[in-house]
Amino acid sequence: MRNGALLTIAVLVVTIIASGCVSPTIGSNNFKYSVGNCGPAGFSKEAEVPFYTYRNGHLLIHLNLRYACCAKLSLKERTRKNEILIYIDNAGEMCRCMCSYPIDINMTADKGIYVIKIFGVKYRDVQNYSLIYNFTVDTSTPRECATDEDCVHYPSCCHIKSQRCIPIFLKKDRNCTNVMCTEECRQCNACFCENGTCVSKKVSGCC
Q1: What does DSSP assign to residue 30?
Q2: What is the number of other CB atoms lying within 10 angstroms of the CB of residue 207?
Q3: Parallel, antiparallel, or unpaired: how do β-strands 113-122 and 83-90 relate?
Q4: Are 86 and 118 in contact (CB under 8 A)?
C-alpha cells in the first residue's frame, strides 16, 4: 500500500511540471513543489490568482509569482485544521530585474474546503513574510482555468485533437521520436473552460 501511494505521488508530480527547465521537485511525501525558470514579468490578471485542481487525493496548485529574477526560491507548508499555510523563501540574491516564476504545488488532502494562505517572500533578515495570496479551495469545484485558452488537449503523439482536455498547467511534453500514427478517422474534442473547470466537447471535422 505504501509503495502504491508513493508511486501515485511520483506520477502526479511529473504530470504537473510544465514544459521547460524547472528545479527538481522537492519536499516531503505529503508536500512537494517545483519552481520553473524565471520568465517574462507580464501576465494576465487571471494568472495572478492561483489555479488548483483535485485528483486522486492530491491538491494541485499552480501560481505565477512575480519576484526578483536572481532569486532561488523554496517553499514549506504548515497545516492547521482546514487552513493550509505556505511560506516562500529566497535563498538566492536580490536584484532590480523582475520576472514571473511558475510554481507547482502537490499536497495530499482529503476532500473538503480549505483556506489557502501563501506568504512570501522572506529574504534573509532583510525582508520578512507577508501575505500575498489568500483564497478558498473547494475540492468539489476546482478552479482549473479562467478562459478557454487555459485548457489544452492531453499531450499525445497521435490524434491530438481527439484527446481529453486538461488545464494547461498540467501539460507536459511528449517524446514522439519514431512514433508511428495510424490514419483512421477520430472524433475531435474542443476544449472549453466552464465554471473554472476544463471540459471536452465533441466537434466534427477531425479526420
Answers
A1: S
A2: 9
A3: parallel
A4: yes
* Digit-coded pLDDT (tens) for 149-186: 999 999 999 888 899 999 999 988 888 888 888 877 78
Alpha helix segments (H runs only) across the chain: 2-16, 45-48
Q: Which residues contact 174 (CB under 8 A, 6 or more apart)?
A: 155, 156, 157
Alpha-carbon span 137 to 58, nearest angstrom: 13
The one-letter amino acid at 14? V
- The predicted-structure confidence for 69-84, as pLDDT tens digits, reads as follows 999 999 999 988 899 9
Q: What is the C-alpha to C-alpha distance for residues 31 and 173, in angstroms, rounded to an integer? A: 24
Q: Centre a 10 Å sphere on the Cβ of residue 158 and count the other Cβ atoms it contains.
A: 14
- Whole-model pTM over 0.85: no
